[in-house]
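Hello, quick one for you while I still have it in my head. My current little project is about how a certain protein chain folds up. You're getting the sequence in one-letter code plus the fold written as tokens. Would you mind checking whether the tokens look sensible for this chain? Here's the protein in full, and shout if anything looks odd to you:
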Amino acid sequence: MKRLFWLIWGVIILVLVGAAPQPPEEFQALFFVEAKEGSGSRWVGTAFAVSPHHIVTAGHVTVVALRETSEEPPISSEELAPKPGEPLFVRHVLTHKVFVSRVAVFRDDLDFALLRCAVPLPKALEVSPRQPQLGEPLKTLALAIRVGAPNDYPHYVLFHSFVASPILTIRWSATGVIDPSIEFDTPAFYTDKAGQPGFSGAPVLGADNKVLGIHVGSLRALGIVIPSASWAHLIPLRNRTVTGEDN
């Protein structure tokens, strides 16, 4: 009788686990960027794979990770920009596996950073350099902290919004997160919903699940996105998962 009880209970557990909602496949390409603090680390933003060895994030995420926690704070604007080869730690959002990446490209004017990993990444998202259409539905693969989660790891969030403007020129920069006096004319478009802390660097996808831009910030109730049309060409040609006009 006891054996039958445990057998039935085991079947119930298997059914419940199997019925648990699984994250969309696209989240296999998602990472969070960590900044080292003493013997520990903290999550500073989101990143996503665009090839078997390349990860994209907002440039200011790398600035925060590498400069705000530095024992010797930068004393000039030139020292704020991450240098090629500087190491960054990224953690896979689903497996929590840590990957060591290195800065490959940093564009202050586009708030863009491309990181390279020596080991293969689990999945990459396709990037589309096409122009987003006004009113087009979007979804952002983002991360948010869940109170009580183990180690305060962020959990995945599928964030829906719409394109709320054409591509405009705004005054923006990646290093402006530390030095607000640094500004460039940066192409961007707005969405109808502001993001949450930690959304920076998250991929903004169209209905076809192709990346149309990077979430970099918010302005009142609007989200700010740097369109992929302005940075897709910075992904090395032989490693691109870029489709559309740029293919």
About this structure: Confidence is low (pLDDT under 50) at residues 11-20.
